[in-house]
């Protein structure tokens, strides 16, 4: 990767509308907190995980929350063990 390409990559990751992103991610956290199951389906994969009684973490736009940890921007949770079901074809 050239210096110019790397510079553009970093600037794109850091120079964002963090307040808008934080609002969007707060909505995603609410969806996960209210949900009981996550299902990922694509060719040759069908993964279902229980997230019942889990609390999602919003690591959105840290600058909005005055931590200055950039880039940021993820909402995550973990499945409830042992309730994951998966069918997949490995190649």
Short description:
One of its GO terms (biological process) is proteolysis. The chain is an alpha+beta fold. The chain has two helices and five strands, in the order ααβββββ.
What does this structure look like?
The protein has one domain (3-88). The chain starts with a helix and ends with a strand. The chain has helices at residues 3-14, 18-34; strands at residues 37-42, 45-50, 57-58, 75-76, 85-88. A hairpin with a 2-residue loop joins strand 1 (37-42) and strand 2 (45-50). The strands form 2 sheets. It has a 3-stranded antiparallel sheet, with no helix packed on it. Helix content is 32%, strand content 22%. The model has no long low-confidence stretch (mean pLDDT 84). By secondary structure, it is an alpha+beta fold.
Q: H/E order of the elements?
A: HHEEEEE
Most strands sheet = 3 strands, antiparallel
In spatial order, strands of the major sheet run: 1-2-5
What structural category arises from helix and sheet content?
alpha+beta
Percent of residues in helical segments? 25-40%
Number of helices: 2
Unreliable spans are none
GO molecular function, one term: metal ion binding
Keywords: Hydrolase, Metal-binding, Metalloprotease, Protease
Protein name: Thermophilic metalloprotease (M29)
Organism: Halolamina pelagica
Keywords:
two-stranded antiparallel ribbon, alpha+beta, 3-stranded antiparallel sheet, hydrolase, Thermophilic metalloprotease (M29), 32% helix, 91 residues
């Amino acid at each position: 990767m050239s210096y110019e390409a790397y510079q553009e990559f970093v600037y794109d990751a850091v120079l964002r509308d963090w307040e808008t992103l934080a609002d969007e991610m707060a909505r995603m956290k609410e969806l996960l907190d209210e949900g009981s199951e996550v299902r990922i389906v694509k060719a040759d994969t069908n993964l279902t995980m229980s997230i019942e009684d889990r609390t999602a973490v919003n690591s959105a736009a840290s600058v909005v929350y005055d931590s200055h940890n950039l880039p940021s921007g993820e909402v995550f949770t973990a499945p409830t063990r042992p309730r994951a079901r998966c069918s997949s074809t490995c190649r």
